[in-house]
Amino acid sequence: MATLQGMSGVDLRALVAEAADRLPLWVGKIYQFDAKTLGIRLNGEDRAKYLFLVETGRRAHFTAEFPTPPKNPPSFAMLLRKHLEGGKVLGIRQLGLERTMSLDIGKRNTTYHLIFELFDEGNAVLCDESYTIVKPLWHHRFKTREVVPGAVYAFEGSDCSTLSPEEFRALLAQSDRDIVRTLAVGCMLGGAYAEEVCRAAGVEKSAAAAEVDAKAVREAFERLMADVWGHREPVITASGCWPVVLAGGEVRERFATFSEALDAFYPKTVGEKQEAAAEKPRLSQAEVIRRRQADAIKGFEKKIERNQRLVEVIYENYTDVAGIIATLDEASKNRSWQEIEQILKANGDNPAAKMVRGVHPADAAVDLDLSGERVKIYVHETIEQNLGRYYDQIKKFKKKKAGALTAMERTVPEKPRTKRNLPLLKKRWYHRFRWFTTSDGVLVIGGRDASQNEELVKKYMEGGDLFVHADVHGGSVVIVKGATEHLDEAVRFAASYSNAWKAGHFTADVYAARPDQVSKTAESGEYVARGAFIVRGERQYFRNVPVGVAIGLQMAPEVAVIGGPPGAVTGRTKVWVELRPGQFEPNDTARKVVRALREKLSEDEWKGLKNALNTEAVAAFVPPGGSDIVES
To answer: What pLDDT does residue 276 have?
Structure first.
């Protein structure tokens, strides 16, 4: 049955059968929702759409709705998209009755194998057609296998349903356990399904496996597998989620498909985490540290409990362990460990040899099966020395636990959080020009070069506007977009962004004209340069206009660096500086302005404004030529 901890091999057999019924399928988008959860959009025939969800180490099934994927897909999801998107699912297979499944996907001239492990910590592994690992979700190196790029993935597993009647009978005859444990472990059925086979076969579950009617047990086992594969009745009971109804199970809810049952049974953990992250306030530094310490303490307690259990089973099997140590210690004096391992395999009927589950030649150690626990025993050490190793581990983790508990009692000083998420000024069409807004809210724009001067007059100057220009050779064409009572600000803007500033002059004459007075049409024999214009008729002059630019940081309604005539800028900004013609080049001036504005802000304010206040934003408002900051 499927529990909240995960699915069994039999459950996965039912899911694989259900998925295989939907073939052919084609791979659409692939998502990764968190560190362990993946989703694949699959397209079927007749425009059918399926969402396949895998939480590695726990479950796999079709779902009605995916969780919200992250804005930036993780690298593993992008790798899967690159290799598998658009490919055809050629087959869906299970590794024996192991909790491992493979999607065989053909794309171009290659067949990829996407393998999902639902046991232990879980994994997702992309392999090429020869089962060489392209990339796993998690890299692991075990004693007997490696799950790393370039290694070959061993996709093979035992399945009692493939055994002949003679092989099945031999399996039971060779077992020294009762029938229910033999089926649960040897045939990987798990306890509940093993008991169901015993009930259907009419045998006592506590009977010795070697003494039961092997034919009846095999037939009951085959009926169960047939029902799981082709006659599913998915249900949820008090104990879990089942692909078939077992005898005595109290059905709470029935479903049309096993995937629907699994989808309803498992909580939407990923979505819940995302909602919780959006709703709950950000944890303080002290709370984060305390949670980490609490998690560490739980981990230490598990390790202490594990090592205490290993000590217990060694004492429970004291005589057997001592005998194995003595035998292997003596054998290793005359034989290599490879020879010892071969002898152990050849004497599989010997009770002591049966207890040996693994050999570690480099450590002169073996793994023993002691009361269902796998225990590492060093054969050149006494049984007391081996016990001492586990006692040392218990002491070590108890000491670490005590240290973590002591650390939790200390208080962590918390810095006040004053950082705010402030809205930044959105880019507008006129931001590529020079610009400012007058004190009464009228937009004024100017060209940065001859090309922009041409563009402003031809494309953006309209009938109700005003054309303004400094009465010097070279400068911004300035367009006042509407009537304003602060025309003095516009003419000061025109004076400041002209060659008068570059020449080091502190005043300049400026004139204004209507749009219909401005033309590019020259008189006979005259030439009008690019960015220049002919202004006919009477102009409005402004004499000895002082140059000067203020650059400051606006906080509302949006955060932005703004610049222009001081009268239009200082009233809108939290901090500002004024510039006049001077000695520093524009880039140096921009850096000096950023530094000066930052010094006027507190450290916490500056941290929240780094995205807005920078050299590039300031440089857009620095006039051409040299500048100095006016000391306040």
So the answer is: 44
Q: pTM to 2 decimals?
A: 0.46
221: how many CB neighbours lie within 10 A of its CB?
A: 24
Q: What is the rounded end-to-end Cα distance, in angstroms, of the chain?
A: 78
For every residue of 365-381, which 3-state class applies, written as one string? EEEEEECCEEEEEECCC
Do the beta carbons of residue 96 and residue 159 sit within 8 Å?
A: yes
What Å distances lie between residue 596 and 419, 552, 573, 608, 613, CA to CA?
A: 21, 10, 14, 17, 11
Q: In sequence order, what are the residues at sequence separation of 6 or more whose Cβ sits closer than 8 angstroms to the Cβ of residue 419?
A: 604, 607, 608
Longest dimension (CA), the chain: 121
In the chain, the percentage of residues whose pLDDT exceeds 90 is 38
Q: What are phi and psi of 410, to 5 degrees?
A: -80, 145
- Percentage above 70 pLDDT, the chain: 93
pLDDT at 208 exceeding the cut of 50 = yes
The string of DSSP codes covering 74-141 is: -HHHHHHHHHHTT-EEEEEEESTTSSEEEEEEEETTEEEEEEEE-STT-EEEEE-TT-BEEEESS-EE
pLDDT greater than 80 at residue 545: yes
Q: Round to whole Å and give the CA distance between 447 and 431.
A: 11
Centroid of chain to Cα 381: 46
Residues 77/30, Cβ–Cβ less than 8 Å: yes
Q: How many residues appear in the chain?
A: 632
**Residue 504 zone, left/alpha/beta (φ > 0; ψ -120 to 50; rest):** left
Query: What is d(CA 102, CA 241) in angstroms, rounded to the nearest whole number?
Result: 22
Q: What is the Cβ-side half-sphere exposure of residue 134, based on CA atoms within 13 angstroms?
A: 18
Residue 200 has pLDDT above 50, yes or no: yes
Residue 443 sits at the vertex; the CA angle it makes with 546 and 458, to the nearest 5 degrees, is: 100
User: What residues form DSSP beta bridges with 103?
Assistant: 92, 114
